């Protein structure tokens, strides 16, 4: 899960000023955690405590109200009711990596990914984006090779994963929909040579950089099982203690996978 969080922090600088290159500084004084990290850790907390996803998302969201949520989600956090709002945005996918790390069977992963998404993103595309991301993490952590991951995600969800980052990058623009950002983030992982390369490729698409690096980073952590210590130190130095404690507890319970 730290792979997803590191991806978010690395990509945070480029969300408002996209780049079309992999040659950039990984961390700067402007690097920060965003809603991707807060909600990823909310899902992790819900899994650790075996509690309701909606309640955890609301609690963590309210605790960090300036993390950069979309307006619909921000309104949902502070509404008295917790009804989902049929979103197809990539928020369901950005927060789901803990599901892929925590559960033991493909069926559980798909079921829990749907539950975590449906708290807000009960649109079919919102659910599909979360399930595809969680399943990719699950398959990677269980030793499936990239071709097997590509084939399973394509067969099950219909995402076109036969392109490369080089194919996509020139014409790609900012897109917050699951259908317009999740396949590209998965391709950034599939094209990569290591964890850092996956995150760099996701950012280099020039799109929703923090979210796509978060998605690619979670899968890459599960697959490569190695994240440079320098990146881990940066993440630990940026996260406030309450979030860091959730990350540490989740890692101890479900394994670091790096």
Give me some keywords for this one.
mainly alpha, ADP-ribosylglycohydrolase fold, 258 residues
Topology summary:
Blueprint: H1 2-12, H2 35-49, H3 53-63, H4 71-78, H5 91-94, H6 97-102, H7 106-118, H8 124-141, H9 146-157, H10 165-168, H11 178-190, H12 195-204, H13 209-224, H14 229-238, H15 241-254
Helix pairs in contact: 1-12, 1-13, 1-14, 2-3, 2-15, 3-4, 7-8, 8-9, 8-11, 8-13, 11-12, 11-13, 12-13
Structure description:
By secondary structure, this protein is mainly alpha-helical. It has a single domain (2-24, 31-254), classed as ADP-ribosylation/Crystallin J1 (ADP-ribosylglycohydrolase fold, Orthogonal Bundle), CATH 1.10.4080.10. It is 64% helix and 0% strand. The protein contains 15 helices and no strands. It has helices at residues 2-12, 35-49, 53-63, 71-78, 91-94, 97-102, 106-118, 124-141, 146-157, 165-168, 178-190, 195-204, 209-224, 229-238, 241-254. The chain is globular and about 45 Å long. The N and C termini lie close together (10 Å).
Summarize the structure.
With 258 residues, the protein is mainly alpha-helical. The chain has helices spanning 2-12, 35-49, 53-63, 71-78, 91-94, 97-102, 106-118, 124-141, 146-157, 165-168, 178-190, 195-204, 209-224, 229-238, 241-254.
């Amino acid at each position: 899960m730290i792979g997803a969080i590191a991806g978010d922090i690395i990509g945070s600088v480029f969300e408002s000023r996209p780049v079309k290159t992999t040659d950039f500084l990984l961390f700067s004084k402007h690097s920060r955690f965003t809603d991707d990290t807060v909600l990823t850790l909310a899902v992790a907390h819900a899994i650790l405590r075996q509690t309701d996803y909606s309640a955890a998302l609301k609690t963590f969201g309210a605790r960090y109200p300036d993390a950069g949520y979309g307006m619909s989600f921000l309104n949902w956090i502070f509404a008295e009711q917790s009804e989902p709002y049929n979103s197809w945005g990539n928020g369901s996918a950005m927060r789901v990596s803990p599901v892929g790390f925590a559960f033991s069977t493909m069926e559980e992963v798909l079921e829990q990914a749907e539950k975590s998404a449906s708290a807000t993103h009960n649109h079919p595309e919102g659910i599909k984006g979360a399930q595809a991301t969680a399943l990719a993490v699950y398959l990677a952590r269980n030793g499936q090779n990239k071709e097997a991951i590509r084939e399973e995600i394509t067969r099950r969800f219909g995402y076109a994963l036969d392109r490369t980052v080089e194919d996509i990058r020139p014409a790609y623009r900012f897109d917050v929909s699951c259908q317009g950002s999740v396949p590209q983030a998965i391709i950034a992982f599939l094209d990569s040579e290591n964890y850092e390369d996956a995150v760099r490729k996701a950012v280099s698409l020039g799109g929703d950089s923090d979210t796509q690096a978060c998605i690619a980073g979670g899968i890459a952590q599960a697959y490569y099982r190695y994240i440079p210590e320098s990146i881990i130190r940066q993440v630990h130095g940026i996260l406030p203690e309450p979030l860091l404690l959730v990350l540490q507890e989740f890692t101890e319970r479900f394994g670091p996978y790096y």
